[in-house]
Design brief:
The complex is a heterodimer of chains A (886) and B (111). Chain A is of the alpha+beta class and 886 residues long. Chain A is built from 27 helices and 25 strands. Chain B has 4 helices and 3 strands. Classes of the chains: A alpha+beta (886), B alpha+beta (111).
């Protein structure tokens, strides 16, 4: 209560300061009057009484100051005074202010931008209620090197039935191709995920219109239903609430729309999803296949470890039911971790990088402040002599620098806004959750926080110097042209050295990323990417149930394409380099002993058409590619890649050898190797070489089950756009319900495949460039300042016979020494720090000597360049003018 | 006057002011005079410490003030005790008594 009254009184006093002041004046006056009256009563003359009373009172101003200092609002008042004074000082030095504010805006802006990303991606919880309990459950099979492997239907159904750790579990399967939407319009492929009944309940997501799936709706035999996205509802259903209950045809099957999800609903990395058809799982007959991802919502009080243990126990039971399958364990991982875990190292490196940039900016401004405070020594000394306490002076300086930093921070928000736009534009598909980025309270607080800390940091440097200085000494100094004190030049030097070490760390980081990127881009994908156009032509599964339907469609398409002028070869494939691998399969060689249930070797296995190799430009190493004879579905020919030949058929001719693929089963078909092709990267340019097997797409082990969503590869001398429209026309002629999607040239695909590394490189490169510029400005400023202060000294030296060359050398060596020390410290620090980014590098070690030496040399050269201007100025000093300068 | 004025123990000025006002509302000069008189000149309080003390006590709600005419018809700011101030004075007085007694005991035990 009393406390509140205090505040109320203080606020009143603050608002009515003039009245309060007048009242105090009047009170003091009445005190003096009373004293005078008293003294006259005692017999003094009026004059004597007045003098005595005034003597008793002392300085009325001092009393008023004392009274004011009692109340808390005075602090605010002085702060306001300080701020107004600071604004006046900053306006008097527009050059200094502009440079400082700009430097800070860049530093703070970069930090705000990166923090916004980190905040949205790493810090904020996923947009579901109690999202920390949403887990993804994986199967681990160490024998196959599977760390986070998919679930199979057998395992999922067992888990759903037996588990006690989760409030609910759901499985989903997201085909890369999405679902072909057919009906009145041209066929279109809609990205989507097939999900089991509890999917939305596990996430805790509520529909906008209609309902989500009911328990049991995923039982086989139930009429298929689908939940659609807000976007789909708007684009395809005219946002009509009555659309719920109607049917759409997805993948050739009619699905009843039961609900619409709100626009705010996103699901993980599949955030383009527009439809969620129900996933109906039949009673499993075998294990594998593994093709499902499992979601579960942990019960309160159950840990991920406990859930993993229970799921592992269940998986062991399933393995016993299917004796030929592998023993696996299960692992529950928080969904957020699955989603963003892989971007964490890069983002943290970026956060560290912008932190360094800000430090450099702070050092730069501190440098300017130190130089300026030297010029303001007399001002400070006079204020001190007039009675300002040391703390009061420090506070004044701090107010100035915090004000600078806050202005810089405000401008930094604008920089961040612009920078975020650039980052988002650069990063599609590189960083997850980018659509969730926003400048929220956390970001604003962070910005304000770093602005304050920044201001205090660079405000304290000159303030400490002020403390160390005796007021009398400053007053005695003439102020102008006095030689630099050793203390301040030491401070300058330390600042420049630290700037250079920080800049070097950033530059080396950026250098390593640039080298990695160029290494990565130099990796041969294993084929000739020029003049290759790719697209996907997926067949609606419901209409293409028989192998003959599939092969006749694709064969007709390929024949049509190859007869077109400008087309040199056309082929189809299930997996497309450099980044789309659909399937890996176990295999074993003839004559090799194996035990059922024990893992064998694993190879990428890809059904392709005859001319696929020619269309892509894959070299033949031995034997032959597929030919017409392989169109026979029971011919069972294989083309393997060089790595597989070298790894598993070392010392003998692979051609003619036989292997069995898929699960170990003595009764399965033998495949004969007919040729060896060059290695092709299907798992990214940065992946190690993998064993690959190609099988003819018409093979009866594959067609029609796996041959539904094929990519078309066309090698052409014609304009890609023409070819694309030719394909569209041809496909429409063959079957109007078949869509053509993802039309893109191979060059574009390759470029897109390195967009992650490129994103990181551009970002870190920008920050390093910024650091380089700031550090150069820093060393330039310090040397220019030092030359200006030493004009007199230089004049004396020259008058005494120093040559201009010597003066040049004298100044240059001063700068060079600082830069060199900074570079050496930076190299040592980098040796320790670059290890943190080892996971981001490709083909370059974290301590790559070439990068270290090259970058250090570059930085040193830039430093010398920055030193040139002041050094040349020093060289041109006219001794006569310089001596008169005093 | 008996000897030189004594420097006030930190915090005792507030108590003296409260005690002075316990008798009747007074203006600043009146308070100074009263303290001077009652202490027989032992405590001389100057405006530099008196007025900040008024402000302090006013802010903590122990005293309040109003402008009134003085006996010789001038305007002056009269301070008076609030009920909170009265309570504070009685507890402070007791506390002071206990402290003095304790200190005295210690000093006398010494001799």
């Amino acid at each position: 209560m009393a406390f509140l009254k205090q505040i109320a009184k203080g606020l009143k006093a603050l608002l009515q300061r003039r009245r309060e002041d007048a009242e105090l004046d009047e009170e003091l006056q009445s005190y003096v009057d009373a004293a005078v009256a008293e003294k006259m009563n005692a017999g003094a003359t009026r004059e004597d009484a007045r003098r005595a009373a005034r003597l008793e009172m002392g300085s009325a101003d001092a009393v008023k100051e004392e009274v004011r200092s009692v109340s808390w609002e005075t602090t605010i008042d002085t702060l306001w005074q300080d701020a107004r004074f600071a604004i006046r000082m900053l306006r008097k030095n527009p050059g200094f202010t502009a440079i400082a504010v700009l430097t800070l805006a860049l530093g703070i802006g970069a930090n705000t931008a990166i923090f916004s990303v980190v905040n949205a991606v790493l810090l904020r919880p996923l947009p579901y209620p109690n999202s920390d309990r949403v887990m993804m459950v994986f199967l681990q099979d160490p024998s196959l090197g599977l760390d986070r492997g998919d679930y199979g239907d057998a395992d999922f159904l067992a888990l759903r039935q037996q588990q006690r750790s989760f409030d609910g579990v759901a499985a989903f399967s997201s085909p890369d191709n999405g679902f072909a939407l057919t009906g009145e319009q041209a066929p279109e492929e809609i990205p989507g995920t097939a999900v089991t009944d509890a999917f939305f309940d596990v996430l805790g997501a509520k529909p906008l219109v209609g309902r989500t799936f009911l328990p049991g709706e995923d039982r086989p035999g139930q009429p298929p239903s689908v939940v659609v996205s807000d976007r789909f509802w708007r684009e395809h259903l005219h946002a009509d609430p009555a659309a719920v209950g109607k049917a759409i045809t997805l993948g050739g099957t009619s699905h009843a729309i039961v609900g619409v999800m709100p626009a705010s609903f996103h699901f993980g990395s599949n955030d383009n999803d527009q439809v969620w058809p129900i996933l109906q799982l039949r009673a499993p007959v075998q294990r594998p296949p593994f093709f499902l991802t499992v979601l579960g919502r942990l019960k309160p009080g159950v840990s991920a470890t406990e859930a993993s243990a229970e799921a592992s126990h269940i998986a062991t039971g399933v393995a016993e039911q299917y004796p030929r399958s592998n023993k696996v364990t299960a692992l529950a991982v928080p969904m957020k971790e699955v989603l963003v875990g892989s971007s964490r190292p890069a983002l943290l490196v970026m956060l560290g990088a912008v932190g360094l940039v800000l430090l450099i900016a702070v050092v730069n401004v501190a440098n300017l402040q130190v130089a300026r405070s030297a010029a303001r020594q007399r001002e400070m000394a006079i204020r001190g002599a007039l009675g300002a306490g040391q703390w009061r002076l420090v506070r004044q300086l701090l107010t100035e620098s915090v004000l600078l930093a806050v202005i810089g921070g405000a401008l930094g928000l604008a920089v961040a806004h612009w920078g975020l736009g650039a980052i988002v534009a650069l990063s599609p598909g590189v960083v997850p959750r980018m659509d969730e980025i926003s400048v929220d309270a956390a970001v604003l607080l962070y910005t304000l926080g770093i602005a304050m800390v920044t201001g205090i940091l660079f405000g304290l440097t000159p303030a400490f110097r002020l403390r160390a200085r005796r007021i009398g000494d400053s007053l005695k100094q003439s102020g102008k042209g006095s030689p630099e004190t050793s203390g301040s030049s030491l401070l300058h030097n330390l600042l420049v050295i630290s700037e250079f070490s920080l800049a070097l760390i950033l530059l080396i980081g950026a250098g390593l990323l640039i080298r990695s990127l160029s290494r990565l881009e130099a990796v041969s994908p294993g084929f000739d990417p020029g003049q290759v156009l790719t697209m996907r032509v997926p067949l609606p599964p419901a209409q293409y149930k028989k192998a003959s339907q599939v092969t006749s469609f694709y064969q007709q398409l390929l024949d049509d394409m190859e007869s077109k002028p400008g087309v040199r070869a056309a082929g189809i494939t299930m997996s497309l380099p450099p980044n789309l691998l659909e399937l890996e399969n176990p295999f074993h060689m003839e004559g090799q002993s194996y035990e059922p249930g024990k893992a064998t070797y694993l190879a990428e296995e890809i059904p392709v058409s005859q001319d696929y190799f020619r269309a892509l430009g894959v070299p033949l190493v031995a034997g032959r590619f597929f030919d017409d004879s392989d169109r026979d579905p029971s011919r069972h020919s294989l083309v393997i890649n060089q790595t597989m030949a070298r790894r598993y058929f070392a010392g003998k001719d692979a051609v003619g050898q036989r292997v069995q693929t898929g699960d170990a089963n003595p009764k399965s078909d033998w495949y004969t190797i007919v040729g060896v092709a060059g290695d092709v990267k299907y798992e990214g340019l940065d992946a190690k070489e993998q064993a690959t097997m190609y099988v003819a797409y018409s093979d009866d082990g594959w067609c029609p089950w796996f041959v539904k969503s094929m990519s078309l590869v066309v090698r052409t001398t014609a304009n890609p756009a023409e070819i694309a429209s030719a394909v569209r026309a041809d496909v429409a002629g063959l079957d109007s319900t078949v869509p053509v999607t993802d039309v893109v040239t191979m060059d574009q695909l390759l470029s897109k495949s390195v967009s992650g590394p490129r994103f990181r490189t551009v970002l870190l490169g920008t920050f390093a460039g910024l650091a380089l510029v700031l550090a150069s400005i820093g060393i330039y400023g310090v040397l220019a300042y030092s030359v200006a202060r030493r004009t007199h000294e230089i004049g004396v030296r020259m008058a005494l016979g120093a040559q201009r060359g010597q003066v040049l050398w004298f100044i240059m060596s001063q700068g060079a020494r600082l830069a060199l020390i900074g570079v050496v410290i930076g190299v040592v620090a980098s040796l320790a720090l670059t290890r943190l980014m080892a996971s981001l590098l490709f083909g370059v070690s974290a301590t790559d000597p070439l990068t270290f030496i090259g970058v250090a040399a570059l930085l040193f050269a830039v430093a010398l360049l920055a030193c040139c201007v002041p050094a040349l100025r020093a060289m041109r000093v006219d001794p006569v003018v310089a001596l008169r300068y005093e | 006057m008996t000897g030189k004025p004594i420097a006030l123990v930190q915090g005792t000025l507030d108590m003296l002011i409260l005690k002075t006002l316990a008798l009747e509302p007074l203006h600043g000069y009146g308070i100074a005079q009263r303290i001077d008189q009652i202490s027989r000149g032992a405590f001389q309080v100057n405006p530099g410490s008196l007025f900040p003390a008024f402000r302090r006590l006013e802010r903590s709600g122990l005293i309040d003030a109003e402008w009134r005419a003085t006996e010789n018809n001038r305007r002056a700011k009269y301070y008076f005790l609030t009920s909170l101030g009265r309570k504070k004075l009685s507890t402070e007085t007791k506390e002071w008594g206990r402290q003095i007694a304790a200190i005295t005991r210690i000093l006398e035990a010494e001799s």
